[in-house]
Amino acid sequence: MTATLTARWVVLDIEGTLTATSYVHVTLYDYARPRLGPWIDEHPDDPEVADAVARIKELGGLPAEASTVDVVRVLHGWMDADQKIAPLKTLQGLIWQRGYADGDLTTEFFGDVAPALRAWHESGLRLAVFSSGSVAGQVASFSRTTDGDVTGLFEQHFDTVNAGPKREAPSYRAIASALEAEPGDIVFFSDVPAELDGAAADGWQTVGLARDGEPFGDADFGTHRTIRTFDEVKVVPR
Fold first, then answer.
1. Residue 84 has what pLDDT?
2. For the segment 110-123, what is each residue's pLDDT rounded down to a tens digit?
3. pTM of the full predicted structure?
4. DSSP-based three-state secondary structure for 102
5. 171 close to 164: Cβ distance less than 8 angstroms
6. Which of 94, 183, 190, 216 has its CA 20 to 30 A from that of 63?
7. What architecture does CATH give domain 3-19+107-237?
């Protein structure tokens, strides 16, 4: 039986929820990995890049005079460990943004995603994203997808820089404030139980995506409503 939820806002995770985890960990990571060093060297006067490099040196225990090679070694280590560290995400997002603009990258949605997004938007629901990937990367990834440009469906984008860690309740409190919404008026979709726990702790409605073949496909979602595709839930505006 299809469950029905009422809300004002639908907030969505990306990796494992809208796209396969392998798209991020293989396609996008492999695209960014060899381009990190050249990007740093080619944009020395970009404040965003300079700030990211300074933070990488600080977090990676490198001296201020460390070379780009040293910085990239730290970044590759974080990528190998799938660390969601802000300056890494910043640089990846900038590189992916260029990749999408140049036509090198196309986001591959699960088949049920685009129809659900468009149906929610057309019904009057407001859509937002909360992902560990940078806001720049999010917008770029939605600009070129297997279902066309879907950037116009989303009103707000949040990442670990402008909201906070994805597994902590204060991050969801900050997002609710930015959306000017009561927590109970928001439904959050994610494939990670710990993220759903953080949202629920702030009073959000939560739905877990246990997609076949994904890392959390067989996870214990506890008390969170759990579905395998968006076809198994209906969200209507309040």
1. 86
2. 999 999 999 999 99
3. 0.90
4. coil
5. yes
6. 94
7. 3-Layer(aba) Sandwich (3.40)
